[in-house]
Amino acid sequence: MAREAPRQFPLDLPVDARLGAEDYFVADANRAAHGLVTRWPDWPDRIVLLTGPEGSGKTHLGAIWADRSGAATAAGAGEALDHAQSSETPRILLDDCDGEGADETALFHLLNAIRERRGHLLLTARGTPTLLWPKLPDLASRMRALPVARLEPPDDATARAVLVKLLDDRQLRVEADVVEFLARRCERSLGAIRALVEALDRESLARGRAVGRGLASDVLSRIWEGTE
């Protein structure tokens, strides 16, 4: 009986994801949102809401805008408000403004401070306002009035390009036919593609093998079965 090759236990090391403008792949699914965000300072409003599901590229597009505009990146609405109130013409990026535990009161005052000080604010969220969020009525009305840059689910070309980028971020050298094999079978969401690449990286390190067709097939099977 053939013996299975010993598995290694890979360390969970951080990955240096590249978030520059040259690394952002523009396609039909994100073209409109990219165009609106990067049009700064010629925005239709001083505040723009960038929406999209988890893993859709909001952080990357936000980082591009922050780099171009010299914006400060805030960890929460309270920190963003402090920065807005201490700056003459603040420019701020606030990620996940609809996240669990987000301070709606601070966000409401932040929107007012940005307008009063004639600054600019890019907010990212998973979606536009609903009946459940925001709960603060005055904030909800202001949020509904904001221009929205919406990131749509990726098409085939975008999914393939993101797959290649994420593999490259992890320095995984994968043959073109294996990339095509993965691209045709992976779920069409950027979050799912990211999870797939993470799983491929772990399995490659554990087996001490490059990502070939067999390894890729095994990882996909486990994901489909919900065991990854």
Automatic annotation (TrEMBL):
TM segment ranges: none
Entry-linked Gene3D superfamilies: 1.10.8.60, P-loop containing nucleotide triphosphate hydrolases
Xref: InterPro entries: Hda_lid (IPR055199), P-loop_NTPase (IPR027417)
Superkingdom: Bacteria
Residue ranges of domain Hda lid in the record: 156-211
SUPFAM superfamilies, A to Z: P-loop containing nucleoside triphosphate hydrolases (SSF52540)
Pfam families: Hda_lid
Stated name of the protein: Hda lid domain-containing protein
UniProt source species: Chelatococcus sambhunathii
